[in-house]
Write a structure and sequence with these properties.
Elements: H1 37-48, E1 59-65, H2 69-77, H3 80-83, E2 91-98, H4 114-131, E3 135-139, H5 144-150, E4 157-166, H6 176-181, H7 191-194
Antiparallel strand pairs: 1-2, 2-4, 3-4
Helix pairs in contact: 1-4
Bound molecules: flavin mononucleotide.
Flavin mononucleotide is lined by residues 24-25, 82, 138-141, 161, 186.
């Protein structure tokens, strides 16, 4: 299998630069692969250097290396749909955002853009992973409340997502359902749908119309 996997790059994405071009979210990971401390630090540094509103840096990452206590905590809280593939990844970063300035429910918001900023930091981490020959797959399917309690998350923060990072694995080593996940078509709304050339009603008119899978000319 190519290191990019069967899903990348998609038609329409060929013009993107690496690591954007070959980024996608595989579900088959090599459960023997491990990351060094330096590699984990580098992934975290990519998130650390992401921009944020007023440089508020509202992010925290719980590092869950396969085999660690944090990993066991996470695995126990995964949704059924994610429990087959997430545990095999080398490391999972569980993202949290500081949303309040104090523990009280009515404490002032920490930043109006905290969720935006954590998403952006996570995106930077996933792209750094690609430059290191790794893949990343973000997920929200887990018991947020239960895991927040296990991780002793303070009331100033909320858990958002997991970012599973690792090396693509051999599909013959996983169950059929997990292997099949990596053959699902990747589709996107067209640029005419997601962009506006003027006010709301005025769609952007890309040179190539339609989604990548519609066989545009
Ligand atoms: C916030 C967020 C939550 C997601 N939750 C899940 C999830 O619980 N399980 C899963 O398998 N994938 C999950 N995904 C992955 C998306 O399904 C995936 O990114 C999307 O289908 C696009 O595919 P691509 O990343 O390969 O381009 C999530 C992605 C994001 C950004």
């Amino acid at each position: 299998m190519s290191s990019e996997g069967p899903q990348a790059p998609r038609p329409g994405a060929e013009g993107l630069s690496e690591p954007l071009r070959s980024r996608w979210s595989p579900s088959v990971y090599d459960d023997q692969h491990t990351l060094s401390r330096a590699e984990i630090d580098l992934l975290l540094a990519a998130a650390q250097w992401a921009p944020s509103a007023g440089n508020s840096q509202p992010w925290v990452f719980f590092v869950c290396e396969r085999g660690s206590a944090n990993h066991a905590r996470l695995v126990a809280r995964l949704s059924r749909g994610n429990s087959g593939w997430v545990p095999r990844a080398s490391v999972v970063f569980v993202t949290a955002a500081q949303v309040r300035t104090g523990d009280e429910d009515d404490a002032p918001a920490y930043s109006d853009y905290a969720l935006y900023d954590v998403g952006q930091a996570a995106a930077h981490l996933t792209l750094q992973a690609r430059t290191m020959g790794l893949h990343a797959h973000q997920f929200a399917g887990f018991d947020h409340e239960g895991l927040a309690s296990d991780l002793e998350l303070p009331a100033t923060h909320v858990l958002l997502t997991g970012v599973a990072v690792g090396m693509q694995g051999d599909p013959s080593t996983v169950d059929e359902r997990t292997a099949a996940r990596d053959h699902k078509a990747r589709v996107r709304r067209g640029l005419d749908e997601i962009a506006r050339a003027g006010a709301w009603q005025e769609s952007w008119r890309p040179i190539r119309i339609g989604t990548p899978d519609e066989g545009q000319t």
